[in-house]
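Task 17 of the worksheet. Students: predict the tertiary structure of the chain below and write it out as structure tokens. Keep your answer in the requested format; marks are given for formatting as well as content.
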Amino acid sequence: MRTQIRVLAVSAFFAFAGAAFAAQETPAKKDLTPQQQRMSTCNGQAAGKKGDERKAFMSSCLKGEQPAKMTQQDKMKKCNADAAGKKGDERKAFMSSCLKG
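Model answer:
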């Protein structure tokens, strides 16, 4: 008899607890603050960047700064890769115009 009363009491407790939990309203999803929106946007734009490059990009993006211009070394690497297959005067002219722009 005692066991049946305990089982009944425990069952009643869980029934009321479950009903109370289900009746709670879930908090409404808050709108993102401007800083959170900026973080989301910058995070999406930083896809594919890693390490120090990502850190520098996120820092400047979150401050609202424009992306930094390419360094001379970065220009040289890019132009050199783009000039693959060109030879002689054609390559010289291409590299000159590429490094200026």
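Marker's comment: Residues 64 and 73 are 25 Å apart (CA to CA). The chain has a mean pLDDT of 79.
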